[in-house]
Structure formats: structure tokens, C-alpha cells
Amino acid sequence: MASSAAKRYAQAVFSLGKEQGTLDAWGDDLAMLARVVADERIATYLTNPSVAAERRIEAFESSLHTNVQPEAKNLAKMLIERDRTMLIPEIREMFDDRLRTERGIAVATVTTAERLNEAEQDLIRQKLEAMYRLQVELAMKIDPDIIGGIIIRVGDQVIDGSVRNKLEKMRTRLMAGRL
Q1: What is the Cα–Cα distance from 128 to 140, expressed in whole angstroms?
Q2: How far apart are the C-alpha atoms of 30 and 92, rounded to whole Å?
Q3: Computed over its alpha carbons, how large is the radius of gyration of the chain?
Q4: Residues 124, 128, 134, 137: is their CA dihedral positive or negative?
């Protein structure tokens, strides 16, 4: 579940980026900030309350491998000072979701029992784009437990064409005495 604090930060960053025409730069900056806090050693230091905020900010800034916007550095400083550094990955995810929505892009999580080749993925993407009239990005997952078939999730909608689901439906009908 998304935290309300992360949601507010993501909304503020998105609004600022849209106003300044820097949405792509913000996407890059948030990705960089998220990579920094993903380092377990750095994250431990940044969340250590016995280290002064100024020292944590210095350590964070020295961990940045590329230049980021001053506003992104300010966001990082503010989060460190408020002991909310670990919200950065969630803020990034919410920002990216909002950016995709703004650009008419949907994410479809496609679960199959085995890896699909590029041609199969392209066919699924094309069908979903025609169905939803949006550009679609696929997030592929492999779950052998579905036995075969495919499960597609786009937002709140689920298309379950898995063999496991069909077997469960058949079992339910058999138990109810109807086939």
C-alpha cells in the first residue's frame, strides 16, 4: 500500500516537473536517488539517527554518480532531514506511474508459466494496445504454478487464462455436480 507521505511528495515533484517542463529529468533524478538508497550500506548510514543530518546529506550527495537537478538534491536533503529517506523508491514508483498515465501509457503485468519470446510479447502488446487504445508496456513475470496459459493485469482488470484457473473452475463445477 502506498504511503500518503510518498504520495504527497510524488505529486509535488510531478507538479513541479510539469510546470518547469522537466518531467524526464525528474524521472532520471528519482531513478538515481533510488539507486543510491538501494545500496544497503548507504541506506543503513542514511537512516542512522546517531549520525547528524548534515553528515548524512554530505554522504548522500557524495554517493550521486551524475549531476542531478538542484531541486532533486533539495528533495533528498529534505527527506534525509525528516528521516524519510526510505520513501525515495516509493516516490519514484508513484512518479513513474503518474508520468505513464499523463503520457497515455498503461503497464500490463503478464504472467506465464514459461518465458515468452520477443515475437509473443510483441503480439500480446499489440492486442492490449488495440483493446485499451493506449500504449502498453509489458512487465513480464514467470510463475510455473499457473501450469500454462496467461494472466494479464492492467490496472484493476485481470484476464486470467491460466490452466490453473481453468482447472479450479472445473473442480468447482464438479463439486457442485454440474459440468
Answers
A1: 14
A2: 5
A3: 21
A4: negative
Query: Quick check: helix, strand or coil at residue 142?
Result: strand
Backbone angles phi, psi at 123, to 5 degrees: -65, -45
Sequence ranges of the domains in the chain: 4-100, 104-176
CATH topology of domain 4-100: Peroxidase; domain 1 (1.10.520)
Angle of helix 23-38 versus helix 70-81 axis, rounded to 10: 40
Tell me the whole-structure pTM to 2 decimals: 0.77
Q: Is the dihedral of CA 148, 153, 154, 158 positive or negative?
A: positive
How is residue 147 annotated by DSSP?
Answer: -
Question: CATH code for 104-176?
Answer: 3.40.30
Burial classification of residue 108, based on how many CB atoms lie within 10 Å of its CB (0-12 exposed, 13-18 middle, 19 or more buried)? buried
| Residue 164 near residue 145 (C-beta atoms within 8 A) | yes
In three-state secondary structure terms, 110 is strand
For the segment 107-161, what is each residue's pLDDT rounded down to a tens digit?
Answer: 999 999 999 999 999 999 999 999 999 999 999 999 999 999 999 999 899 999 9
Which 8-state DSSP code applies to residue 86?
G
